[in-house]
Amino acid sequence: MRGIADAAQKYNLQYGKYPDSFVDLENGAQSPLGKPPSSVVNILGNNYGFKKINENMRVWGYLEKEKAYYVWDSACPQFIITTSDPNGDTFDCTHEIADDETPVAPPPPPATYKISGYIDVQGRSDDKGVTVTFRQGSDTYFAVNSSWGHYEVNVPAGTYTVTADMNLYLSAQTFTNVTADSTLPNTVIRGGDANDDGKIDSIDQNLIGSNFGKKCGDSGFDLRADINKDCMVDILDLVLMGGNFGLTQPTTW
Prior knowledge:
Helix content is 15%, strand content 34%. The protein has 253 residues and is an alpha+beta fold.
């Protein structure tokens, strides 16, 4: 079908009119209007139709006769799929929906804005590894902070719930309305949640206490007890847990 359309368009451009016959691009044979070109027959068998209306030419094939048609019309030079009968003189291809032969450009992506800030990981000299989540309905955007705590993310305009989270620490949460590039207030996430259940309680206290004095490589060393990740469980881990004892997440940003 595409070969027919191309041939007709080429003829029109060269001679300023549409032909009274089709030329089969495969073998050069001419077929007068009133007899289907072989390239139509090869594709559609006997399920074809075509007509000439003044200087306009229309070719169609039945995808499912009387239900759907595959049409090329020189008044609207693109292939379309339609349920309207193209045999009628009132058929107007410009009102039909184009098939995927005519790609539709996707809508432009929404404008985004850069949101940035800093997150301090309590008790650590290296702040990297905090996941910052911006959530609006089913849309979610992520950023991870650097070793000095900085993060940035591009999000469309809207109102977001923002959460900063990291293993062994309680998450912090805030809300922001994004309308332009902006910087969120700095925040601190609080450590001591050794079992990562969202609260700091006696379970965390016992886990850290039972590992007190152990370091990486020791038998029975539990990584969860090393809150500040300095490869030993010591007073620093106990202080983090004890100073935040009783807190639950999310904490205030």
